[in-house]
Design goal:
It is a single chain. With 302 residues, the protein is an alpha+beta fold. The chain has 2 domains: 66 residues; 228 residues, Sandwich (Jelly Rolls), CATH 2.60.120.560. It contains 3 helices and 13 strands. Strands 1, 3, 4, 6, 9, 10, 11 and 13 form an 8-stranded antiparallel β-sheet that branches. Strands 2-5-12-7-8 form a 5-stranded antiparallel β-sheet, with no helix packed on it. Helix 1 runs antiparallel to helix 3. The longest helix has 26 residues. The mean pLDDT is 83.
Length: 302
């Protein structure tokens, strides 16, 4: 990519990026409050016992399809669903959809690990959104033969250390924010335990129940979606979003329930709190500086 940028332009961009690094740290101190410890979680174990179905088993693995016919994901070793990084940031959204059946009231467990990103993504990551540092989503109750957005999304994103938000880890995307952001760093495994009971949805991230909401209360449009969530279908397929970044899923297990089945408690043992935001600020600043310095060196060497 750097070959497409002339050396004079690189010399202009480099100091701007260094300035952005300073702004990154200053904004981080104000927004992230890195001196304040945050709660920390860890991935919960995959469930065992009667009623649980492995959606990545030898039988079920081939039933994950890209319904648009542009499949890039693959099932590895009968236990992993891997979505590779896109060669270009300018791609359309894709989805790996489990086509065997639909689900209404269920308990779903899955684990995911985001891949690392090039240094140049750290600049928009700092200024715009953590979605630039890995982005996917678990779409649920997607009607057959309809777009994934007709269901609802539990957000998957590389926002370790960021404050919780309605577009952050464990959120019902752009609609309901989680109580805490329990994301682990990029490269570590995270777990989601999601339960649906009629219009009620509960989300546990890395052993912490961060969200428990009732869509029946959402009788008007919220966020960017035109359909009130009270009107969403109560049954549909499961789809995993390919947003261009690398991500691996494993231990995707589900069991059907009745609307009156109690939501299970899958809390993990308490973990020590962490000052995670400060770590992310330092790592991000280092990557931006390293990238700017390498760009200058490359220009001067020509």
């Amino acid at each position: 990519m750097l070959k497409l940028i002339t050396w004079p332009l690189r010399l202009i961009l480099a100091p701007l990026m260094l300035l952005a690094t300073v702004a990154y740290v200053v904004a981080g101190v104000e927004y992230f409050e890195p001196w304040k410890p945050k709660p920390a979680g860890k991935a919960t174990a995959a469930p065992q016992g009667a009623g649980w179905e492995d959606l990545l088993s030898a039988e079920n693995g081939p039933l994950w399809k890209d319904l648009a016919g542009t499949q890039t994901f693959d099932i590895q070793n009968g236990s992993l669903l891997h979505i590779p990084p896109s060669p270009s940031p300018f791609i359309g959204l894709k989805y790996a959809t489990f086509t065997k059946q639909t689900f209404g009231n269920f308990d779903l467990h899955l684990e995911f690990k985001l891949g690392d990103t090039p240094w140049w993504t750290m600049l928009p990551f700092a200024i715009l959104s953590p979605q630039m540092h890995g982005n996917s989503g678990v779409f649920l109750r997607v009607p057959k033969d309809e777009p994934a957005l007709r269901g609802f999304e539990v957000q998957v994103v590389g926002d370790y250390g960021w404050p919780p938000s309605k577009t952050g880890t464990g959120a019902i995307y752009d609609v309901v924010a989680p109580m805490f952001n329990m994301a682990r760093p990029v490269g570590e495994w995270n777990s989601y335990d999601i339960s649906t009971r009629g219009t009620r949805v509960a989300v546990t991230v890395n052993g912490w129940r961060v969200l428990d909401t009732d869509f029946a209360q959402l009788t008007a449009p919220v966020g960017k979606f035109a359909t009130p969530y009270a009107q969403l279908p109560l049954e549909g397929q499961i789809a995993l979003q390919d947003h261009g970044g690398e991500i691996t899923y494993r231990n995707i297990k589900i069991r059907n329930c009745s609307a009156t089945t109690p939501v299970p408690d899958v809390s993990a043992a308490a973990a020590p709190s962490e000052t995670v935001s400060g770590t992310k600020i330092i790592e991000g600043a280092e990557k931006v500086v390293e990238g700017a310095v390498d760009s200058v060196k490359s220009s001067l060497a020509k």
